[in-house]
Amino acid sequence: MINAVIFVRPENYGVTAARCLDYCAAKRYNVIGLIPGDWPAAMRMLNEGLAGVVVVASAEQLDPDREPRVEVVPRRLNSRRRPANARQYSTASAPALRKIR
Q: What is the three-state SS of 25-94?
C-alpha cells in the first residue's frame, strides 16, 4: 500500500481535503498526513520516505514558484518554440546529462 500525504490550501481546506480523501480511498492510499499550506512539510515527508506521493485537489492548489516541483510540458505550447532569429541549438555543445535511476 502506498503512503500518501495530502496538501491543501488553508483557505479552502474543507472542500479540498474531502475531495483528496475520497481520491486516496479510491486509489487505496494509506493517508499518513493532511497538511494545510505547508509545502516544505509535505516535501519532508517524501524525502524522509514517510510518504510515496503528495496528493493535491488540483494544480491550482500549488504555488507555481514552489520548490522542489515537477513541471509537465504541454503538448502544444502557447508561444513559439524559439525566436525566428535564434541560432540552431547544437547538442554537441550541450553539457553532458547524468542518467539518474
A: HHHCCEEEEEEECCHHHHHHHHHCCCCCEEECCCHHHCCCCCCCCCCCCCCCCCCCCCCCCCCCCCHHHC
